[in-house]
Amino acid sequence: MRGGHGLLGPRRERHVVPAADLDALALPVGDDGVVIGVDAEGHPAVLGVNRPTPYEVTLIGGLWTAQVLALRAAATGARIAVETGRGQVWSGLAQAAGGGQPCVTLHDVGRVPPQGASAGSPVLVVRDCGMRPPRGRVVAGPWQSVLTLLPYLSPAAPRLLRNSSLVGVQRVSPDEAQEIGRLMNLPGPAVDSLPTLGDGVTLWCTPRDRQFVMTQGTEAETGLLGPSRRID
User: Fold this and answer.
1) Taking the model in full, what pTM does it have?
2) Backbone torsions φ then ψ of 174, nearest 5 degrees
3) Bridge partners (DSSP) listed for residue 59
């Protein structure tokens, strides 16, 4: 025994790498989360929705992309609570997700109960409440992220974009692109590209950073949701 240090461990040879060989090491260092597609270089783009701090995401885009994100978040172990006024378009996903486990629940607008999110049971709340989503009863918190889907730019968008940690933008009209560019401080080339984006392409951005991501459905996702599309 050594005072204050417990038992001595087994004695083994040290593992030493010469400094000249360090460049040969490749470590998989990166963000942990949901793979939402690939970037312009073909590298996986990862969205970390399971966080110990509140995380608000706004997606100005199509239902297909929101549903793919929900499915992939559920595959990481998150529980998905969908607040929607069109439960019929989510019911098939809710039944298919989780392999029979009730990991996706559907709730009427304004009626999402407390979810009891924790590190062992993170939650993603998906708000599919139309152009003017009311302020939610269940808000982002530790281990509970909120994704708000807007089909188009609406009067509620400026408030949502200001309060969001991350904003996703799919194909929009030129006028909408100009307004989004002003709100998100986008450079001119990014603004000009928004009306021409293909189905499945999303510009994910903050006021300082931006990245185009192509989301392609897996065979199972395409079988359940159909091919990628911007318009529902």
Assistant:
1) 0.84
2) -55, -40
3) 149, 168
